[in-house]
Amino acid sequence: MRILHADDHPVFRNGLRSVLEDLSTHVEVLEARNIAEALDILHTQAAIDLIVLDLNMPGMERFQGCAQLAEVASNCPQVIVSASESYQDVRLAQAAGVQAYFPKTSTRDLLLQGLQAVLRGEQYFPKHLLLPQPTLSRRQLEVLALLSQGLPNKTIATQLGVSETTVKSHVRGILQALDVRTRTQAVMKGQALKLL
């Protein structure tokens, strides 16, 4: 099995290589530092079975790289491993024909499971990345951060220089946006969504 891995960070390339090598007993990982090197490998090497690439690399504008690689290797599945955990990026990846999307924070087991699914001809998109992210205003994010410190409304109002009624209104808005019932649930969900 031959895998092309394109990422401009050498430390991450080294780390992911060991995961890719665990996919099969005979794996050859070809590495590229940018989209130009990836295209050169596709033009000069024998058939590639899987392309794994970062979303942001020198010489490419986000999903433009996927399209360039697909022109050269249209039958080769593409997988994105990115620092972005944006719902929009995941949806754009699906629209670009990518077979899987992993955040760089993914565990080794998750990567192996997803990559094996792709090699079986399936798609793999972690469910939590397919959910639209709630939108909170700048002030709501400030209130949520103070809620995470366990502060009561009166103290939050004093710190932000607003009325307690205004804080209560922001808390209601936060609970509604995050689809939770309590302040504690709001803080927990905010942490899970990396809003804090």
Order of helices and strands: EHEHEHEHEHHHHH
State the fourth-level CATH superfamily of the largest domain.
Answer: Response regulator
The count of helical stretches stands at 9
DSSP strand count: 5
What proportion strand? 5-15%
Quaternary status? single chain
CATH architecture of the largest domain: 3-Layer(aba) Sandwich
Structural class: alpha/beta
Classified by CATH, the class of the largest domain is: Alpha Beta
What share of the residues lie within helices? 40-55%
Quickly count the domains.
Answer: 2
In the sheet with the most strands, the strands line up as 2-1-3-4-5
Mean pLDDT: 91
Please report the distance between the alpha carbons of the first and last residues: 41 Å
Which ranges are low-confidence, i.e. pLDDT below 50, for 5 or more consecutive residues?
Answer: none
Biggest sheet, open or closed, and with what strands and sense?
5 strands, parallel
**Rg calculated over all Cα atoms:** 21 Å
Inertia-based shape: elongated
**What is the CATH third-level topology name of the largest domain?**
Rossmann fold
